[in-house]
Amino acid sequence: MPDPQPLTAAVDAARVVPQDAVATLLRTTPVAAELAARFAEAGHRLYLVGGSVRDALLGRLGTDLDFTTDARPAEVMQLVRGWAEAVWDTGIEFGTIGATRHGAMLEITTFRADRYDRVGRNPEVVYGDDIEGDLIRRDFTVNAMAVDLVAAGSLDGDRDAVDPVEWFVDPHGGLDALVTRRLDTPATPQESFADDPLRMLRAARFVAQLEFTPAPRVVEAMTTMAVEIERITVERVQAELAKLMCGATPRQGIELLVDTGLADRVLPEVPAMRLEIDEHHQHKDVYQHSLVVLDQAVELERADAPDAKADLVLRLAALLHDIGKPDTRRFESGGGVSFHHHEVVGAKMTRRRLRELRFPKDVVEQVSQLVYLHLRFHGYGTGEWTDSAVRRYVTDAGPMLSRLHKLVRADCTTRNRRKANALQRSYDDLEARIARLLAEEDLKRVRPDLDGNAIMELLGVPPGPVVGRAWKHLKELRLDRGPLSRADAEAELLRWAADQDIHPPARP
């Protein structure tokens, strides 16, 4: 995420930064100026609004642009037809027209002054008459700023000719909030969250994405109104959680959800880890340990690929890898605590929770498998594993091997430096052995030395369960002994067939 600090340093009493940001916007995104000219010619106002203004000020504006206007949807359709490369009206019931031009995705929404029944989430759409009424219904003050593009159009020429007050609309102190990284609501948080409870999750997401600090009144409202999140569909909850986990500092967002009680309703396994002392007795509780693992997984992810997209699977696995501990905790006679098979229980819990949240099937399976595998390395010791055990580690991880490496390393949170260094050296040794075996045997595509056709031909059997059992037997041999010659593989298959009372035809 681009550091907002340059914005903080540049803001002065004259508020020149918004003017600079809009001038840059008009130069680098000419479609905004073109669109504003069309609306002005038709006698309408057009404003860049919401997250687009926030991101323009942070220097992170993308190609998705949000606008608001006094023109009604039918008029907007007329103004963009023939100019935009594509136009759609799937959001017209909410006053929104979509369009594309020169690679930019545009959403143009008529001023709104919606009313909510506060039972569901969808509003009764009511068109407004001015930009101020539109902005007060927005979720947060940093998203309640607007740029009057019709008035600001002259900035591309004599940028001092227009008073910023005339084109930069900020009635709720959004710029100050952006500079100080403060998250607050235009109306009271109680009103805002009652209208749309999803905004409470969005608050945690902004904390994770932009490193904002929520205002005390926002935290208080989230805490007292947490039950309202049950009005929101699972799909929308999942979308916000995924964005939160892919933020710059997901730990901060998770902590806000737990502290306010929202996590109890959307991700209850996470707060359930609090106060559950782990087996190393080195952390305040399993919850705090899991947050440290999440932090360290993010660091390893960025070190490996600084410019890559955030790895949702790895981050979810880091957060959830120990959720099986509360259910498996046992107090031992000597005063210790054990969590036997917590990885097995945790994998089942992870699969159930992510399915209930409607995460994609591949995400569910990958995260669950990482949780299941995260503890296996601790049997490696100082290198006692056979090559067969190393092969199984690699094949069980499959395409997630790189993620498993990061998760296992991140899971080392002991404060004992000697122990931490020993664990890292052991994993270095394991990775070196994996690299050697991969080079020698191409373990990423481990398959039996005979395929299904060869098995059927040698045993004289048709497709069916026998072929599957034989294939599995040969794969186990491949993992145990490494690659076999064709003759050795055939001899092993015939020995297995004899044990199964299968009698192949005589070979010529």
UniProtKB/TrEMBL annotation:
Enzyme Commission identifier(s): 2.7.7.19
Keywords: Magnesium, Metal-binding, Nucleotide-binding, Nucleotidyltransferase, Transferase, tRNA processing
Cofactor: Mg(2+)
Pfam families according to UniProt: HD, PolyA_pol, PolyA_pol_RNAbd
Transferase among keywords: yes
GO biological process: one example: tRNA processing
GO molecular-function terms, A-Z: metal ion binding; nucleotide binding; poly(A) RNA polymerase activity; tRNA binding
Domain HD, chain residue ranges per copy: 286-400
InterPro entries according to UniProt: Bact_CCA-adding_enz_type3_sf (IPR050264), HD/PDEase_dom (IPR003607), HD_domain (IPR006674), HDIG_dom (IPR006675), NT_sf (IPR043519), PolA_pol_head_dom (IPR002646), PolyA_RNA-bd (IPR032828), tRNA_adenylyltransferase (IPR014065)
PANTHER family: CCA TRNA NUCLEOTIDYLTRANSFERASE 1, MITOCHONDRIAL
Protein name: tRNA adenylyltransferase
